[in-house]
Amino acid sequence: MRSVSHKMLDYRLLGHAKTIILFIITVAAMFSIFSADGIVSQVHLQSSAIEIEVSEVFQIHTTERRIKSTVAGIPLRITEQEIKEVRSANQNSLNPPLNVTEEERIEWFRKKLPEFEIFTSNNLSRKFHRRIQEFFNNNKCEVQFFMTWISPAESFGRRDFLAMESLFKLHPHGCLVILSGTLDSMQGYRILKPLLDRGFKVSAVTPDLAFLVKNTPAESWLHEMKSGNKDPGEIPLAQNLSNLIRLATLFKYGGVYLDTDFIVLKSFAGLSNSIGAQSIDMVSKNWTRLNNAVLVFDSNHPLLFKFIQEFAATFDGNKWGHNGPYLVSRVVERVAGRPGYNFTVMPPMAFYPVDWIRIGGFFRKPENRADSRWVKAKLLQLSGETYGVHLWNRQSSRIRIEEGSVMAGLIYDHCVICKYVYSS
């Protein structure tokens, strides 16, 4: 009897121990999960992140497949790489087909409309205006900056991150809003976390396009586009929507818009109501083309209204630049000298000190003494009257930054984390 009692007691103790061990393992696992992603210090960001995570689960659920564990047959979610592949495929499927008639493209667009999330309203986009106001009101912003990102979050690369670093290097008390549905997510938060951890004020916010264009000439354009009766053109619609979003955002809130391939070299605090010339006539010194990669305007500025009006009236999705650089050039040429418009056209050295044809030279290391002298002279020149360098990402994204190059010098002087310079 005694041996039986001892055995029963042993089994009870063993069972009790197993329960305790299981509890400890569970708590440890939960702690590791939470600590891996980091704890969001801002309450608003934390609550938004939870909403985003829940919505992402439901959005991905329709395209995710389940796989079985080879060990215990436990259903697991697909890997992160597979999710990226699904999202990338979905993104590519929204690029208009080439070599088709306008009627065929409009028919394709009608079928794809439900997949264009930028046109739909969700829990995050409905809070857009409130979140923007809270972000700016709760922070003492030296300058209000905006960027747009309509591509997948995983394509936000190291060079795009360097652009943000340079912004905060010169504006440690500035505030940056990235208008993006894809970065307004847990994945986006992890991308921005190194800056947030250092106290910089940056937030990704899902835009509400209908709200942004309300009571502007683009409101009817958006309604027609969402009805599926307008030709989106051969150029990916996201590119043209970015052109509209930057104009409407500055018209609504005012501030500085920057492309994500722009390295900031000088404070924007003293600038107002300015646009940059991309090129000038070498004889007359008059500008020949403007660009919209950098815009500095007060809210409700009449020139911004004219830009939006031109976008809605002359939209053409088949011509690269027609709704962007060429648009601002057309409008400024028409209104120049008219009363009621107060703005400055900055010279090319301000924002576009190197054109897209020669941008590659900024990335290459010097091969001889003459090259080294040129690099030093160029860095000295840029340290004067240049507010930043537009990198012309379409031409330079595949060019590696080489040690000793102009780009290497610029980044090392204007970065805050300074990692992965030569691999970006």
UniProtKB/TrEMBL annotation:
<keyword id="KW-1133">Transmembrane helix</keyword>
<keyword id="KW-0472">Membrane</keyword>
<dbReference type="InterPro" id="IPR007652">
    <property type="entry name" value="A1-4-GlycosylTfrase_dom"/>
</dbReference>
<feature type="transmembrane region" description="Helical">
    <location>
        <begin position="20"/>
        <end position="40"/>
    </location>
</feature>
<feature type="domain" description="Alpha 1,4-glycosyltransferase">
    <location>
        <begin position="297"/>
        <end position="418"/>
    </location>
</feature>
<protein>
    <recommendedName>
        <fullName>Alpha 1,4-glycosyltransferase domain-containing protein</fullName>
    </recommendedName>
</protein>
<dbReference type="InterPro" id="IPR007577">
    <property type="entry name" value="GlycoTrfase_DXD_sugar-bd_CS"/>
</dbReference>
<dbReference type="Pfam" id="PF04572">
    <property type="entry name" value="Gb3_synth"/>
</dbReference>
<dbReference type="InterPro" id="IPR044789">
    <property type="entry name" value="Put_A1-4-GlycosylTfrase_plant"/>
</dbReference>
<keyword id="KW-0812">Transmembrane</keyword>
<dbReference type="InterPro" id="IPR029044">
    <property type="entry name" value="Nucleotide-diphossugar_trans"/>
</dbReference>
<dbReference type="Pfam" id="PF04488">
    <property type="entry name" value="Gly_transf_sug"/>
</dbReference>
